Amino acid sequence: MKLKYGRGTAELPSGLAARSSVVAARAVALPADEAGMLRDRLANPVDSPPLRALLGPSDSVAIPISDITRYSATEIFLAPLLAETDAAGVPRDRVTLFIARGTHRAQTDAEIAAIVGSELSSGIRVVQSDPDGAMATLGTTTRGTRVRVCLPVMEHDRIVLTGTISFHYFAGFGGGRKALVPGCAHRDTAADTHFRVFLPDGPGKHPLARAGQLDGNPVHEDIREAVAMASPAFLLNTLLTPGKKLFDAVAGDWLSAHREACERYAAVFRVSLPHRYPFVIASAGGWPKDINLIQSHKALDNAFRAVTPGGVLILLAECADGFGSPHFFPWFRFEDPELMELELRERYQIYGQTAHATLGKALGCRVILVSSLRPEDVERMGMAPAASLPDALKKAEAALGELPPPLILPDAGYVLPDAGTR
Fold this sequence. Notes:
This protein is an alpha/beta fold. It has helices spanning 14-18, 34-43, 51-54, 74-87, 109-116, 151-154, 187-195, 218-228, 256-269, 293-304, 337-346, 350-364, 375-380, 389-400, and strands at 2-5, 8-11, 21-22, 61-66, 95-100, 125-128, 135-140, 146-150, 158-164, 167-168, 172-173, 234-240, 246-252, 270-272, 277-283, 307-316, 366-370, 384-386, 407-409, 416-418. Helix 2 (34-43) crosses helix 4 and helix 11 (337-346) packs antiparallel against helix 12 (350-364). The two termini are 30 Å apart.
């Protein structure tokens, strides 16, 4: 059994693989014609006229697209999507693609070319969002988030949201509204929406701010309210297999189409477990799911749901780009999640929240991390470093006495095991 690791694989010994249980996504049928499927979804949108009917020739159109950390099949869906703006008579020089990088690093020219694909040479503009750049202030949500969105986006007449659906460990699902907030929002707006993960009267996290949950999720609801102030005109979201193959898409109203897409995604990737397991081996899913530690944490969060308290979890996550932000690792000066939470409530940072979530899992079970990170840094995060899968297995055996039959999660960055919530 080969498990994805970065752009390569790590092989599980055959004897252990034979004794394992494997939890994977449900099988899906791939469309014979990806472009044809996308055209059909765009022609039959959810709760909305087709995009071409919503635009006029004089309109300017902003289209936020995912950055390199979230593969969304952008290079595949852009041609059918831009055919809609063409059909409405909108010139290509009045359409701008905004790489919605949120608070992530800027993309390189090579990364932009990989994201956009062949449409890069069509005369369309490509601009990167800047969380510290010029902003349009749209208002304040009922939870107190001051909504500021990149001014160049808001200077367009129409906004079309794009992206891909995934589970998100505290916003419920990715995709939809997140293309704009936090994708094209001010750094403080992004931080404020993420802060809603905590109970307002503290301490602790809101029980509904979790993966696969939209209704009652305060993070989702705050982002949704913020994005509504920008009045997006339309949405196109993709659904991808762990092999990054496009198997479905949803287009239409930015709220109801996103919800339908989440339901379709959950039907494939939420998998019930009869119980938790004392020994779990998980791959984040390879690049870009394990491009850095911050992205890999999403796989850690999913896999943590499958392991018994105090059990052993091996996570394969190369983290070729390191932690993913300079604002992440310094939070591990706190060794107690409660003290870290107190500091976050005083001086919140988005990646401090990720550090807090990581530390909580490292204390809840024995996490052995196979990565390219420095061993001393892995230990500082409360996890055991391993140079390879065989090394990780030796450490797991030392911790457990003997290796019980493991639960294998080949694509923990995608699959949400459901054995009850913690």
